[in-house]
Every structure is written in C-alpha cells, then in structure tokens.
Design brief:
- The protein is mainly alpha-helical and 73 residues long.
- It has three helices and no strands.
- The chain starts with a helix and ends with a helix.
Length: 73
Amino acid sequence: MYEKLVAYAARQLDIDPSQISPDSTFESLGIDSLDVVEMVMDLESELGVELEMDDQDITTFQELADFIDAKVN
C-alpha cells in the first residue's frame, strides 16, 4: 500500500517519489488536508472499501498505508 500511495502522490500531486519516505509528513511535502481527503477518496474507489478517517491522527505516508492495510485486510 505504501508504494501505491507514493505513486499516487507522484502522479496526482506532482511530487518527486524520491522525496517521499515512510516517515514523510504530508505537511512537509506541501500536501494539505484537502489533498489527503482526495487521495483517500480515490483509494476508496479503487479498492472498493470505505475508509472512515474521522478520529484518526494520520500525518505520514506510512501511517496512512498502515491504516488502509488494516481496513482492507
């Protein structure tokens, strides 16, 4: 899932994949909360799963990947 998130950010948000590490925060890469919501919505559609993040404090790519993996599996 982590690799999928990196590929998405590179493609949709025009971020160089080499700038992204598992502990990269969205904020450090200039990704705002709207970008994160759009990314999650696109992944929901692609994966066919609902990812409710209301009470989640997710700030890094690895945290988001782990959260999605837990929901999908």
